[in-house]
Amino acid sequence: MSGAGVGFSPKGRLLDAGEIRRALTRIAHEILERNKGAQDLALVGIAARGDDLARRLAEELRRIESVDVPVGVLDITFYRDDIGLRGEAPEVHQTMIPFDVTGTTLVLVDDVLYTGRTIRAAMDALMDLGRPRAIQLAVLVDRGHRELPIRADFVGKNVPTRAGDLVRVLTDETDGADAVEVGEVSA
Description:
Elements: E1 8-15, H1 17-35, E2 41-46, H2 50-65, E3 71-74, E4 105-113, H3 117-129, E5 134-142, E6 154-158, E7 166-170, H4 172-175, E8 179-185
Parallel strand pairs: 2-3, 2-4, 4-5, 5-6
Antiparallel strand pairs: 1-8, 7-8
């Protein structure tokens, strides 16, 4: 479970602001190394919070390589396979990808990788927009418990969790603070 849309009772902090910053810097270096630079590279963050992280990665890439990498925001709400199964109404965001995805190497950015279902939905949504040369996955936290054969290419931190745990990522842009917390559902 992710920490969105449910009551959250924190049990501990997994990453603080400094650790998040260092993880994103490392991921940016790994992206550049794997792709031999930023040529034909674009970042697409999954709303919400993956887009915050994608913009930060773009800033790091600019700092390191002095190149502007395009950034888009992807809403996967209507691509989810549990859209009618959840009790709560889905929170819909706007997809804003101001570039052609065809022929680019897209780095899909999300906050937490869990079952893999969000990433599957994101890839379906991206394919509806064009045909990227490649899609790579960058996540701040990989917590395991995969239900689909999906793995991240770039990981900030691998965190073993229990299936019932919630992992919540807070970003300064959305929440006013940077942190990753683990907790449980609260009443």
